[in-house]
Write a structure and sequence with these properties.
- With 965 residues, the protein is mainly α.
- The protein contains 46 helices and 10 strands.
- Helix 17 packs antiparallel against helix 18 and helix 33 runs antiparallel to helix 34.
- It is globular, with a radius of gyration of 35 Å.
């Protein structure tokens, strides 16, 4: 039997190939391709790549290495950049970057020179991510780009995070990101699992699962390999043993003995035997070289293999040729790659323990003798890997410490942490560890805790910081060190939403003497003020912020002064008088010349202006802040904070489509808990106003999960805003009693920072619920409105926006008392109109129209309702349009009050009842609950002195109550 090489064959993947081509036509987007080892992921990518030329698309490809789990960061992206430089040159890459500056990419590829600074921070990392995305998007502007990242199950955390950032944020340019991974590698705790689940929820992400081949496909594959129709028994046997996995089909075919009489050799019994069968047919010396190569990873440079094997050039080449001819190895640039990673794994796992140790020792010694055998950025992490695998604790510790420093330079904080944890693991086994690395055990703990903080590994970081604190002790000579550790741990407690953050900051302040003043004390005080202001202890927060500012001025630190002023401004905003203080903050931030300070000012200024009611100004300030973030390469990271403050005023102004675009983009970036709630609530409110109650309920559920379960403190901006969405949703559902249940949370939590700004909207809705329910309105078994009114009386109202809510509350309170209060409704409508807020203006005009109608002023009611209807239509606010139309019908009928002693709502229920609708139909039509509809029907029967729905309808027909509708 003659079998030809099979890599050119692909069967059973027509649909998947079509999915990839369709995704490219719809780019930007991403495709996540999963499948078992050997199922054909690489073969599919190869076939797709072969078709890109005719589509004018560029392929950028990089693969993750098994060593990635050992701390080798960003390897696939380094490979991609190196290939791009080879293709278009460094100058070509520079032409795609802002200011043609490639230094930001030097952290990934030394060919770009040295990084702008050695600083390592979340901001620097965010800038690196933005720069990579900018490069890819600008390249895609010239023509479609396909970025392929293979074997993501081996990806290090930094690679996963950059990959997730690119997928979430790619937009505008035809950039398709394709990721492959082994499904059988994804055990329950594998870090790729949750990331895949998150990414799959994004609108532009498609997930493909490559399944095993059918028997018919296996037959086609075998026929292609044989160039002839295969005997059915052969197909049956190969299909049964391969179970439809293409790679195993290849190996099984290769195991045939080539006889012409139909007899075949016994097939291997296990997968490992199957993978090794082709290797074992090679000369013994070639097998030895393959064993040497297996410890170097899926791909190994020729020079490194020569050094490890100890063979001269001619002999090494001679011994490699049989492996290449047998398709066990393939030539890959200036090195070799195993045909499939499974082959390498099988060979390496077949090593005896002593062989394993000696082989990794040879690798480490070869790299020690000639560091140039691998790229400089990989040297120390590979040495760490090999010395550790060789069980040499001393040199594994030393190289891990050096590898951590290299990871720091590339902003790969998770990989730095991994290396530092290895140092800590080996510490007790190396008696002179401190002398070896020039750092003590506590130093390593501090470094590891800081790396965990930057990597977002907060739980681990808290444990490391706690260990460092125990080691440092409480001596006076360690006060500054202890304070810095407490500040670090406190920040991580805050990020994990634990109230212990405040305790740590209080203790940190206590550690530091007031004299002499230090920047550390100023920084710790500012942090304490930030955390304490989340509670009701505003006085302590203000005192801490004021002392921080005083110290900053004393020591002449512009950075500390900016931080202290911003913190002090945010402690307790006064929307009547804080404009001057804000201008002073802006002035100091401009003098500091720090874009981080400018971004923080953009956040607080836009927040302040929105609170005042200057919505257009707030939106513009936030837009300019987003421009600053974009200019410094942080539009889709730090810029997310500013984007909330742009979306909120757009919602206020009724520019809902613009706001929703910003909100959805921000939510796709997977923001932290501290800002996610605001995004969810705003998006939920737009959905609610437009009648999409399902989306509003989903957003409410997500927001409640955060504010009611995950956050240990009640932050008014998040907690009360979530309550606001819930109360409004319940009112729209026709459940005013449930709305009051939500309002109870605001009544129960007075005194929070920014209380009035976020409490007023909830109290207005609570008053509206009381007006609907009348005497039945209760909270905790007591009359609801006195509780709501008392809470409102305790608010300190500042600024035009809060005043507008106060006027709206007074109008609703008049409804509760049974007063018509036309003047109050008109005043509310005017206040909202002056603030350019169309939705609450339309609601106020509706209330004014009802009050005018009740007073007999049909013309005045019609004018107000016409204005309300136009505003609601312009907003596409369907539920509000329906409410306005219901009142407008009464105006057309020129009935100032409903007849027969019925209320206006009861009259509407009677009309629907007369048309033959059930209680459920009535509830849906009027957007009330079925129970409420039933109560209205009972009241109607009592007032009409009838005993059935039919009799009530007969009365309505006899009196021609609805003849003019």
């Amino acid at each position: 039997m003659s079998i030809r090489a099979m890599p050119s064959l692909m069967v059973g993947r027509t649909a998947e190939l079509g999915d990839l081509e369709e995704s490219l036509s719809r780019a930007p987007g991403a495709v996540l391709i999963g499948g078992e080892a050997g199922v054909g992921k690489t073969r599919l990518i190869r076939e797709f790549a072969a078709r890109l030329g005719e589509k004018g698309a560029r392929l950028l490809a990089g693969g993750c290495l098994e060593l990635g789990s050992d701390g080798l960061p960003f390897i696939p992206f380094t490979t991609v950049l190196r290939g791009l430089v080879r293709d278009i040159g460094i100058e070509g890459v520079a032409g795609l970057l802002p200011r043609a500056d490639t230094s930001g990419l030097a952290r990934l590829l030394p060919e770009f020179g040295e990084p702008e600074s050695d600083e390592a921070s979340a901001e620097e990392r965010a800038r690196l991510f933005e720069l990579v995305l900018t490069l890819l998007e600008r390249l895609a502007e010239r023509g479609p780009v396909v970025l392929v990242i293979e074997d993501a199950h081996w990806a290090d955390q930094s690679t996963r995070e950059l990959l997730a950032f690119l997928i979430r944020n790619a937009g505008g340019s035809p950039l398709l990101i394709v990721v492959t991974y082994r499904t059988n590698e994804l055990h329950r705790a594998h870090p790729l699992r949750p990331l895949l689940a998150e990414l799959a929820r994004l609108e532009r992400v498609r997930r493909l699962e490559l399944t095993r081949l059918s028997k018919a496909d296996v037959a086609r594959l075998v026929a292609g390999a044989m160039d002839a129709e295969p005997p059915p028994p052969l197909v049956d046997r190969i299909y049964a043993r391969s179970e439809g996995i293409p790679l195993f089909v290849e190996f099984l075919l290769e195991s045939e003995d080539g006889s012409e009489d139909g007899k075949h050799a016994e097939l291997p019994e296990s997968l490992r035997d199957l993978l090794l069968a082709g290797v074992q047919r090679l000369p013994e010396e070639t097998q030895e070289v393959l064993r040497d190569a297996s410890a170097g990873g899926t791909r190994i440079e020729h020079a490194l293999l020569a050094a490890v094997s100890g063979l001269d050039e001619p002999r090494l080449t001679r011994l490699l040729r049989p492996a290449i001819a047998a398709n066990v190895l393939v030539v890959d640039g200036d090195g070799y790659a195993f045909r499939h990673a499974l082959i390498r794994e099988a060979i390496h796992e077949d090593l005896l323990p002593g062989e394993h140790t000696r082989l990794h020792t040879r690798y480490a010694e070869a790299l020690e003798n000639d560091p140039g055998l691998v790229p400089a950025r990989r040297l120390w992490v590979e040495l760490s890997h090999h010395w550790y695998s060789a069980h040499d604790a001393t040199w594994a510790l030393v190289s891990s410490w050096r590898a951590a420093a290299e990871a720091h330079k590339t902003l790969a904080y998770a990989e730095k942490l991994a290396m530092l944890l290895r140092v800590l693991e080996l510490w007790e086994r190396v008696p002179d560890a401190e002398e070896r690395i020039g750092a003590g055990h506590v130093d390593v703990l501090e470094e590891a805790a800081a790396a965990a903080d930057l990597a977002g590994e907060f739980d681990r970081g808290i444990k490391l910081a706690s260990a460092a604190l125990r080691a440092v002790g409480t001596g006076e000579d360690q006060a500054s060190r202890r304070a810095a550790l407490l500040e670090l741990r406190g920040r991580m407690y805050y990020e994990t939403a634990r109230s212990r953050c405040i305790d740590d900051l209080r203790e940190a302040v206590a550690c530091l003497p007031a004299e002499p003043p230090t920047e550390l004390r100023a920084r710790v005080l500012a942090a304490m003020a930030t955390y304490v202001r989340l509670s009701t202890d505003i006085r302590t927060a203000r005192a801490a912020a004021e002392e921080s500012l005083r110290i900053a001025r004393q020591i002449g630190s512009m950075t500390a002064e900016v931080s202290a002023r911003i913190t002090l401004f945010c402690v307790d905003m006064d929307y009547d008088r804080d404009g001057a203080a804000l201008r002073e903050v802006e002035k100091i931030a401009d003098q500091a010349g720090s874009f981080q300070a400018q971004l923080r000012v953009a956040v607080i200024k836009s927040h302040f202006l929105e609170g005042v009611g200057r919505h257009e100004d707030a939106a513009e300030v936030a837009r300019l802040g987003m421009d600053v973030a974009r200019e410094h390469g942080m539009a889709r990271t730090q810029g997310t904070y500013v984007s909330i403050n742009r979306a909120e005023p757009l919602v206020s102004l009724g520019r809902w489509d613009e706001a929703r675009t910003i909100l959805r983009q921000s939510l796709e970036q997977d923001p932290g808990l501290t800002i996610r709630t605001s995004l969810l609530v705003l998006d939920g409110e737009i959905a609610l106003y437009r009648g999409d109650l399902d989306t509003a309920r989903e957003r409410l559920a997500e927001a409640r999960e955060i504010t009611h379960r995950k956050m240990p403190w009640k932050k008014a901006q998040d907690f009360f805003s979530t309550v606001r969405l819930e109360a409004r949703l319940r009112m729209t559902e026709g459940r005013p009693d449930a709305a009051l249940e939500a309002v109870r949370d605001v009544i129960a939590h007075p005194g929070l920072p920014d209380d009035a700004r976020y409490a007023w909207p909830v109290l207005v809705t609570g008053a509206a619920a009381c007006a609907e329910l009348g005497d039945a309105a209760t909270i905790d078994g007591r009359p609801a409105f006195p509780q709501i009114e008392s809470r409102a009386a305790g608010l300190s109202t500042t600024g035009p926006a809060q005043n507008a809510y106060r006027l709206a509350f007074e109008a609703q309170a008049a409804r509760v008392r049974g007063e018509r209060a036309l003047a109050a409704w008109d005043a509310s409508a005017t206040a909202w109109e002056e603030l350019k807020r169309p939705y609450p203006m339309a609601e106020a005009l509706l209330g004014a129209g009802e009050a005018a109608l009740a007073s007999g002023d049909h013309e005045g009611a019609a004018r107000r309702l016409e204005r309300a209807a136009k505003a609601a239509r312009d907003l596409s606010a369907a539920p509000l349009c329906e409410r306005i139309e219901a009142v407008t019908r009464r105006v057309r009928r020129r009935d100032d009050t409903a007849p027969l002693g019925l209320t206006p709502r009861e009259f509407e229920v009677l009309r629907l009842l007369t048309e033959g609708h059930s209680n459920r139909d009535i509830a849906e039509a009027l957007v009330i609950s079925t129970k409420t509809a039933s109560v209205h029907v009972s009241n109607i029967l009592a007032k009409l002195k009838v005993t059935s729905r039919g009799e009530a309808a007969a009365v309505a027909h006899r009196l021609a109550l609805f003849a003019s509708d």
